[in-house]
Design brief:
By secondary structure, the chain is an alpha/beta fold. The chain has 5 helices and 14 strands. It folds into 2 domains: 154 residues, GTP1/OBG domain (Spo0b-associated Gtp-binding Protein, Chain: A); 176 residues, Rossmann fold (3-Layer(aba) Sandwich). The radius of gyration is 30 Å and the shape is rod-shaped. The chain starts with a strand and ends in a 12-residue tail after the last helix.
Amino acid sequence: MLIDRCTIFVRSGKGGHGCVSMRREKFVPKGGPDGGDGGSGGDVILVGDDSLSTLLPLTPRPHYRAESGKHGKGKSMIGADGDDRIVKIPVGTLVFDEDGELVVDIDTNGQRFVAARGGAGGLGNEHFKSATNQAPREATPGGDWEERTLRLELKLIADVGFIGMPNAGKSTLLASVSRARPKVADYPFTTLSPNLGIAELQGRDERRLVMADIPGLIEGAAEGAGLGHEFLRHIERTKVLVHLLDVEPIDGTDPVSNYKAIRAELTDYGEGLGEKAEIVAINKLDLVPDDERDARLAEIGAALRAAGATNAPIALSAVTGDGTRALLEACWAAVDDRDTSGWRTAD
């Protein structure tokens, strides 16, 4: 289950108090101060972990506290530092404070951010001795903890994002090119949350693409219609968009008008979505009779060029797998910043 928003409470550890102690040993009646310092409190540290893809593990236990430092002791013994509390979060998580201000963007694996810093250890009385005060009776307390409430928001990091109208076949395509197993059905809005999959391309080199299947968009998504904001933000970090069109939409609409509607939503949403590299793919080719395919694809291709599409669409069938190899190669070329002018519609 993809949970992409949650709120957590973090509190660091308090610093240990400094100790007031006088050295008292046989034959050393006036040994002077020997109170040790307190240990520092532990930090609460957020760490990016690319093995996680959801904030679900944080929701049952939203409170994270680090250990406090131990108090100093006599004989100049320093208190032990408190253990840090490590909180692993998915790569791609934005961290906001209570006022809604962005604190940090965890966008790389292993990235660390100290969300709450532990209190400093107090000083023992041996720090306060002087020529005029040889038996000080003072020490400082440990520093206080820090506590804060943080709001986490996950934006998926993927190479390729699938976009399109509901029931365009995005989930079927993801299942066809990867080992992901999203829910697939023959009705709109089957996908209610984004799904991730990894596609492996054939060849001498090991090539992998991380792909995100975004729930279907509808007109008005940029203003939040159909939870548009919830889904559009997940493709902000993708490098290329695969705009999937149903060659024969079940609602009787035209594929090109659907293309225009989605493009308008991307532009209205902003955040650079309208300028992202795009690959247009025409899906469900198996539904068109063989003797009508060429004419149908030529008709749609001409209309797409008139609508602003810059590359020839790639025809495919996610069910049979026809054309999916060409799509993956085009995605790799776009992600790898190669020349894409030679894309073709067949394997």
